[in-house]
Amino acid sequence: MSRQDFTSSKVTSKEEAPFDINELFFSRTDDRGVIISGNEVFRRISGYTWDELVGAPHKIIRHPDMPKGVFYILWERLKKGLATGAYVKNRANDGRHYWVYAIFSPVDGGYVSVRLKPTSSLFESVISLYAESFNREQEDGLSPVESAGNIRAKLRDLGFPSYSAFSSYAVAQEVIARADVLARVEDERLQSLIRILPVLEALDEQHASLFASFAKTRGIPSNMRIVASRLEPAGGPISAISQNYRLMSDEASTHLGSFQGDDGSQSLPAAVAKKVYGALFMMAASSIQCEVKNVAAEGLVSGVEADGFQGEVDILDQLSEGYMAESRSVLQSVCSEAMALARSAKDLRQLVTGLDSIRVLCRVEAGRLSAQSVALTPVINQLDRFHVEIDSTLEQILTLADKVAAMIETSMARSFNCPLDKLPAAERNLSQVYA
Ligand SMILES: Cc1cc2nc3c(=O)[nH]c(=O)nc-3n(C[C@H](O)[C@H](O)[C@H](O)COP(=O)(O)O)c2cc1C
């Protein structure tokens, strides 16, 4: 059978092409996805010969059940020079299938994909998500770009803010599950990063609710001034108080803006979460790339791999080292942002305390005006309610921000086994590699 026949054939069997969980494999392609090389495990599981694989497009092992939308997302990211991860169902030469979790990375002249056997509980949800996406492509005639949009929306429903957040979480879960199945020591570094994510999410929610509470207070000073003007001349102090309240409340709102991330497009907690996801991906990917490199190096020594394979070992080595350095660099910036977040929350509390004393002053003044101030009562009651709301949200923000800062610090120390001030300076920006 010619290579063309292999790629066009849609013959599949329900059977699985078996491989062991401790087996890791990789392939390297040019920038169009044409296979250049790989390790012997990759060749064996695919069921092809090297003559058939080298020079063939990687879709030689494409399984017809795979949604087009997944490959659309993959190539969209790869073409931007970004690493990515994906669950992929492949078809071996004999029609059997095998699932992998693949980590795709841009390298000089093309891409490298390292793969492991997925075993996490997340994998089960992905199988149904893929089946649903595939059906929608078939039944509703979705284009790859539409299907990609649909997949991203489904992932958001599952709680992932973006595809990259999903693939980071997935690679970490797969690395953790694999260590578990192989009864290896669990990688605490990944777990400690994963634990930070829900805290950042809660912080983001509280941040949004604080914004909403402040928005609700905006009309109150004007209402107060209107009422005060009707009480003239006795309402003078209330007018002055309402003006002070407006000024301080504006200041607090501006300060709330400092909870904005680097690019200003999202909240600081969401921007920090994005970086944590990035560090998670880099760290988990690096550990698998390192292990594949060791498998490749052993294959070279034992003679399983052909001469000239050292170049592949070197590429995997550089990749793994680079990603580990990257995760360290990202965590460093996460660490300083988390501290800034905690500081910012404390400054905001001071401003709100000031605001609260103006509210109390307003109550006192209204009490002094006694019967005259009846019209003020609903406005002041409203202010009281908002302050209770703001105080409780702020209290939660302070607790969460401190918790995040402490968790990141612990995670940093755990990840690099080194005091923070002894770490070398961050070298590159994450967005150049993974975003
Ligand atoms: C490094 C690398 C590895 C890839 N590995 C696979 C793979 O294992 N299985 C697969 O179906 N596609 C893989 N692809 C994607 C294919 O190039 C291709 O986009 C996909 O099979 C869908 O083909 P189609 O878009 O022509 O339908 C890989 C791409 C790259 C760059």
From TrEMBL:
Q: Classify the source by domain of life.
A: Bacteria
Q: Name the lineage.
A: Bacteria, Pseudomonadati, Pseudomonadota, Alphaproteobacteria, Rhodobacterales
Residue runs in coiled coils:
none
Annotated PAS fold-3 domain residues: 36-107
State the organism named in the record.
Celeribacter halophilus
Please give the Pfam families that the UniProt record associates with this protein: PAS_3
Query: Which UniProt key words apply to this protein?
Result: Receptor
Which protein are we looking at? Aerotaxis receptor
Q: Do the record's keywords include Zinc?
A: no
* Cited InterPro entries: PAS (IPR000014), PAS-like_dom_sf (IPR035965), PAS_fold_3 (IPR013655)
